[in-house]
TrEMBL record:
Protein name: Serine/threonine-protein kinase TOR
GO BP terms in the entry: negative regulation of macroautophagy; TOR signaling
Source organism superkingdom: Eukaryota
A single GO molecular function term of this UniProt record: protein serine/threonine kinase activity
Length: 344
């Protein structure tokens, strides 16, 4: 039985570490080969629970120092590589991608080879004819590689910026949101490195968002572009300053869109617009945004997001009574926008 604070995964790690101390070199090698075979069998099982168990075992053993780390990393990379197949369920893909991120973070000298292979494969899947499972796997993998192996991923930034758009505009919202995660991690890589191409990459992303927000755009294109705008506001610094008015007014144009998803996206992005340039926002857009958010609070289906946005907005521009505070824009009766009284 596990003691408090232990999990089956940590028990596996402790067991392997104990065997490493107690067994002779030849016996330990035999033990590890049997363990590798067992994990291989699990990750290739048709039983989803066994497959997940194999992934969790890999994730737990990555940091265990066994004296033959290169062999272990190589084996695990190959095991995880074969998991991303079209018939694999979402939970298994997510777990495998997270294990892959852990692997490249700890992989040492082998990291570059693993990342090179996986990035190229992920980009090929994004650029190929749409296959939902592979596109989903690609954005999961690229997110983890950018986050956990930024130095190696950095050389692939130009290709990524071109290839990510089909996923950001995918018909399935889960793929669009995971593509946004990957874009965020990519922009963090760019943000931390001095490169003369940075502005060029930012400009290319911005131009694509504007195309997606043009007249007649589909819900998927609009949503993906709003997601990207949110990340550009977070991670591109001065680049967005000259485009601030254009961004703010473009986003606000969609605040009354017929699709609830788009309205919610606008609500969530307003605090980011405020945080980017609080004084400018307070002067030019605070009043219209407060009117919009107070209207959102009247809708039971959108009220939660409205409250969150209102709280974040107060954190950006202040909640006092000054020109830049939100208090002057609140209704006299605090119950007015939330739960109007009715006569009994």
């Amino acid at each position: 039985m596990s003691t408090k604070g232990e999990t089956p995964h940590s028990n596996l790690r402790m067991h392997v570490e104990a065997e490493a101390r107690d067994l002779s070199g030849e016996n330990f090698t035999r033990f590890m080969n049997e363990l590798y075979n067992r994990i291989f069998s699990m990750v290739n099982s048709s039983n989803p629970d066994e497959k997940l168990g194999g992934i969790y075992a890999i994730d737990e053993l990555i940091d265990v120092q066994l004296g033959e780390n290169a062999t272990k990393i190589s084996r695990f990379a190959n095991y995880l590589r074969d998991i991303f197949q079209p018939n694999i369920d979402t939970a298994t893909m997510i777990a495998a991608a997270q294990a892959l991120g852990h692997l490249v973070r700890a992989g040492g000298a082998l990291t570059a080879d693993v990342v090179e292979f996986e990035v190229k494969r992920g980009l090929e899947w994004l650029e190929a004819e749409r296959l939902e499972a592979r596109r989903f796997a690609a954005v999961l993998i690229l997110h983890q590689l950018a986050e956990n192996a930024p130095t190696v991923f950095n050389v692939h930034v130009p290709s990524f910026i071109t290839a990510i758009w089909p996923a950001l505009r995918d018909p399935k919202i889960a793929i669009r949101e995971r593509a946004c995660d990957a874009l965020r991690s990519c922009l963090c890589v760019v943000e931390k490195r001095e490169t003369r191409y940075r502005v060029q990459w930012y400009y290319k992303l911005f131009e694509e968002t504007q195309r997606g927000l043009g007249k007649g755009g589909s819900v998927e294109r609009i949503h993906g572009s709003l997601l990207a705008i949110g990340e550009l506001l977070r991670h591109t610094g001065e680049f967005m300053l000259a485009r601030y008015k254009e961004v703010a007014e473009t986003v606000l144009r969609f605040r009354d869109h017929r699709e609830r998803l788009i309205r919610r996206s606008v609500t969530s992005i307003l605090p980011r617009i405020a945080a980017f340039a609080p004084e400018r926002f307070a002067l030019s857009y605070l009043q219209i945004c407060m009117q919009h958010l107070l209207g959102v609070l009247k809708s039971s289906s959108e009220r939660g997001g409205g409250f969150m946005a209102l709280g974040e907005l107060a954190g950006c521009v202040g909640h006092g009574t000054g020109v830049s505070g939100i208090t002057p824009h609140l209704p006299v009766s605090p119950r007015a926008p939330f739960a109007p009284c009715t006569s009994q």
